[in-house]
Amino acid sequence: MENVEIARLFNEYADLLEIRDANPFRVRSYRKAAQTVAGLSRPVAQLIEAGEDLTELPGIGDSMAAHLKEIVKTGSLAALRQMGQELPETLTELMRLETLGPKKARKLYDELRITSVSELAAAIDTGKVEALPGFGKKSAANLRRAISQSAQHMRRFLLAEQARAGGD
Q: What is the reported pLDDT for 156?
């Protein structure tokens, strides 16, 4: 598993922790570990194979080193899978939208059971989002704009992938 994929898992776990309103220090530790892993010049798998002490890396303690070994060995993180059973992992997709942080993503989930961007768009269109305390018309408009920008970005990405694959 590549370092960038390991960093993505740590960031996804941090996002879910943040949605659950976990200890900010714990959230920060996963973000710091993701940053460290992403910035390494050698793959984590090579470091483990060479028997290097992962706790010598910035932001990597004993439990984080154990997580790294688990990810390299299994390709996943059990804690992330468990949290995914408690909260839909698609909530992290919502947090990628500009202006939508963990608290608002959690509120959308708790109040309207929104777990995806498409569900959010539908709730905005029906006026349910602006009716929520802490949102309003301006928030709904900002979210609608963020969804539109995200869709345009995704469309450009898919067109670029198609062009590389030799499609029309």
A: 45
Residues 31-68: b if buried by 16+ CB within 10 A, e if exposed: bbbbebbbeeeeebbebbeeeeebeebebbeeebbebb
Query: CA nearest 34: which of 60, 52, 53, 16?
Result: 60
What pLDDT, on a 0 to 100 scale, did the predictor assign at position 164? 56
Residue the block writes with tokens 């949102």: 135
Q: Is 81 helix (H, G, I), strand (E, B) or coil?
A: helix
Name the CATH topology of 91-164. Answer: DNA polymerase; domain 1 (1.10.150)
pTM over 0.70: yes
Task: Kindly tell me if the per-residue pLDDT of 6 is higher than 50.
Answer: yes
CATH assignment, 3-86? 1.10.150.110
Start-end of CATH 1.10.150.20 domains in the chain: 91-164
Work out the pLDDT band at 166, boundaries 50, 70, 90: low
Any alpha helices (H) in 20-116, and if so which ranges?
24-38, 44-49, 62-74, 78-86, 91-95, 102-112
Q: In this predicted structure, which of 79-83, 115-119, 137-141, 154-158 has the lowest mean pLDDT? A: 154-158
